[in-house]
Specification:
Blueprint: E1 2-5, H1 10-26, E2 38-42, E3 53-56, E4 59-63, H2 70-73, H3 92-117, H4 119-126, H5 133-150, H6 157-169, H7 176-193, H8 198-205, H9 211-227, H10 240-253
Parallel strand pairs: 1-2, 2-4
Antiparallel strand pairs: 3-4
Helix pairs in contact: 4-5, 5-7, 5-10, 6-7, 7-9, 9-10
The structure holds zinc ion (ZN).
Length: 254
């Protein structure tokens, strides 16, 4: 698995190689990563949908902004020794940045393995998108939710809190595009809500002004709770409940 730099320095390349090695050894040893050709670092905003990370044609693409100056901020690093990531120097912001870099890489590696195990779900998102958009959105929801949920790497509490507050405080406009964008954000939001108690969750969602959206969030959480008991299914049937929620909410808004 070669690291290819389309941007950045030789030093950052060494750093990234070290990060990837660390993730694979410590968190991803149970994943089947055979087939990944390379990991490529690209300039910010050049990956489709402005993603930070994405698997494409057996290549893991990463956005350069993820690296920011982390390589230069991490103490204990020189090319001869392993980085002790637990002793990352600096303030909370650096720790946060390192965590985001780690979780993004791990997330994409998890997808690579998961796609082999659940080809039908991935095909619904990647190939059959136009056939039934609500079912595809349900599949996308479940792929993203369970990737976070089943993954070993956790985000920091502050990061989750920040994301959830942004989600509930945003005034989503229910136009077509914005509605679909919100649905794409929904699995990340609900997954993070699972880390809060039900009291905290109820408190959080009172900040959502739109009643339709609030109801949807409650229903999505309930369905997700049921679906995680079914383990790693690869079947659309299980997703009908989510499909119905998404379709129903959309109809109410137009
Ligand atoms: Zn993902």
């Amino acid at each position: 698995m070669d690291v290819v730099m389309h941007i950045g320095t030789e030093y950052e390349k060494m750093f990234l190689e070290e990060v990837i090695k660390h993730i694979i050894v410590n968190f991803a040893s149970n994943l089947d990563l055979s087939g990944i050709v390379s990991i490529e670092l690209l300039p910010h905003k050049t990956i489709p949908n402005e993603s930070s990370g994405r698997m494409e044609n057996k290549k893991l693409l990463l956005s350069y902004h993820l690296l920011s100056d982390i390589a230069y901020k991490c103490e204990n690093y020189n090319s001869n020794t392993e980085i002790d990531f637990k002793k990352v120097s600096g303030d909370y912001k650096v720790i946060e940045e390192v965590n985001v870099l780690f979780t993004t890489i791990y997330h994409e590696l998890f997808h690579f393995d998961d796609r082999k195990k659940r080809p039908k779900l991935y095909a619904s998102v990647e190939i059959n998108w136009d056939e039934n958009i609500y079912l595809s959105l349900a599949a996308l929801y479940w792929i993203e939710f369970s990737t976070h949920y089943n993954g070993k790497l956790r985000e920091t509490e502050q990061h989750m809190q920040k994301y959830c507050n942004n989600f509930v405080n945003r005034n989503w406009n229910f136009s077509n595009e914005e509605y679909f964008y919100m649905l794409k954000q929904m699995p990340y939001f609900i997954y993070r809500c699972f880390h809060f108690s039900i009291i905290q969750f109820n408190e959080l969602i009172t900040k959502i002004d739109n009643i339709i959206e609030q109801k949807m969030v409650i229903e999505c959480r309930e369905v997700s709770e049921k679906l995680i008991t079914l383990e790693k299914f690869d079947d659309y049937v299980e997703l009908r409940q989510l499909e119905i929620i998404f379709r129903k909410a959309y109809k109410k808004t137009i």
